[in-house]
Amino acid sequence: MSEHLGTCLCGTVTFTIQGDFDCFYLCHCRHCQKDTGSAHGANLFSQSAQLTWLSGAQAVTSFTLNGTRHSKSFCQHCGSALPNTQAEGMLVVPAGCLDTPVALLPSAHLFCASKAAWETDLDRVPCYEKLPQ
After folding, report:
1. What is the pLDDT along the chain (133 residues), one digit of tens a residue?
2. How far, in Å, CA of 28 to CA of 41, rounded?
3. Burial of 129 (0-12, 13-18, 19+ CB in 10 A)
4. What φ, ψ does residue 104 adopt, rounded to 5°?
5. Which of 24, 28, 45, 128 is the most exposed place for a label (fewest CB within 10 A)?
6. Beta strand 23-27 with 41-46: parallel, antiparallel or unpaired?
């Protein structure tokens, strides 16, 4: 069984996840684009892993979009995405909030018809190790 540690950006919220992830999806739907401010959400899913808030549980806020199953949890201080338990029987963990490596590669891209128009030929865009001068 795996153990993963994670935090929010400001460090107020810390947590551990005991167990394994079932899948890892990169979701390109408009809801994930809006709530990440990026091209896609990158979320790990588990039906059996256990989430334990180590600190800052009172700072965790959840939001569910009316009329949908789209839900997210985040730190009310810094806005960082955090694990979400709003889906019935499912733990959803934004991959970027984990501080420990995830060995699982993405399982699939979802809602590709909704991909951002600028999300094409990204392998041709220059790649820098840090902010260019």
Report:
1. 799 999 999 999 999 999 999 999 999 999 999 999 999 999 999 999 999 999 999 999 999 999 988 999 999 999 999 999 877 789 999 999 999 999 899 999 999 999 999 988 888 999 999 998 8
2. 7
3. exposed
4. -75, 125
5. 128
6. antiparallel
Residue with tokens 């107020």: 12
Burial degree of 107 (CB within 10 A; 0-12, 13-18, 19+): middle
Q: Which amino acid is at 33?
A: Q
Contact 22, 112 (CB under 8 A): no
State how far the Cα of 71 lies from the Cα of 43, in Å rounded to an integer: 12
Report which residue type is found at 55: S
Locus of tokens 């091209």:
39
Tokens of 117: 């128009």
For residue 14, give Cα distances in angstroms to 8, 20, 37, 85, 124: 7, 19, 23, 16, 37
**Would you call 29 helix, strand, or coil by DSSP?**
coil
Structural domains in the chain plus CATH codes: 3-116 (2.170.150.70)
